[in-house]
Design a protein that fits this description.
single chain; 216 residues; 6 strands
Length: 216
């Protein structure tokens, strides 16, 4: 059996004009993940990322040798666009500035998206599911035995939910749990694909490492 190890990107820049930039903490998280994997003698034969800067830069900070390949199916869903569509361009100020309201609204908005209750989204829920599956298939179409993927919380939540045959809503419940630079592991061989480990952060399991933990 081969391994597909999916890492969520390090912390990005919440609240900044450009969210798609790793924070200093995010870079430290990525380095810690890479260092822990090397200490376990786990070195990828292949690396695949989405096309977002925070995903690509996380792979770079991890410091492994294979040149990353890119697949846009690993990109996060565009929550800003979904908000614009849901609120018809008039997004409440609290959604933009209050973290608790922001993430509660994120959950409600994704559930509405899954039920096709948002008019004219940038992509449908079905399209999202299909592109994530295409990215998964691309990543496991290989002779490599250790594949490292760097993606985002929504994609990882969908990969896990799909592997378990769980309802669509379960994707969002998983999404909101996933820590920055957390590790989710799958085993694969031919048509077999199964979850082995979810949202693990052994690289944070020291007093120094615990200071690196974040969720957004």
């Amino acid at each position: 059996m081969a391994e597909l190890l999916v890492i969520r990107h390090g912390q990005a820049s919440f609240g900044a004009e450009n969210y798609d930039v790793l924070s200093d903490l995010g870079r430290a998280q990525a380095r810690a993940a890479g260092e822990w994997l090397r200490s376990m003698d786990w070195t990828p034969d292949r690396i695949v990322t989405g096309t977002l800067n925070r995903q690509i830069d996380t792979a770079v900070e991890m410091g492994f040798a294979p040149v990353p390949e890119e697949h846009a199916g690993l990109n996060e869903y565009d929550f800003s666009n979904l908000l614009e569509a849901r609120f018809k361009g008039d997004i409440p100020d609290l959604v933009k500035g209050d973290r608790k309201v922001h993430f509660r609204t994120l959950r409600e908005t994704v559930f509405a998206w899954q039920r096709d209750e948002i008019d004219d989204p940038y992509e449908t829920w079905t399209t999202f599911v299909e592109r994530v599956e295409a990215a998964r298939a691309f990543s496991v179409d290989t002779d490599a035995k250790k594949v490292l993927v760097v993606s985002s919380g929504g994609v990882i939540g969908q990969l896990v939910a799909a592997s378990l045959g769980a309802p669509a809503s379960h994707m969002m419940n998983l999404n909101l749990q996933i820590k920055n630079a957390a590790m989710t592991r799958f085993m694969f061989s031919g048509s077999l694909f199964s979850l082995n480990e979810f949202n693990a952060t052994p690289h944070y399991a020291t007093p120094q490492g615990a200071a690196l933990m974040s969720y957004s």
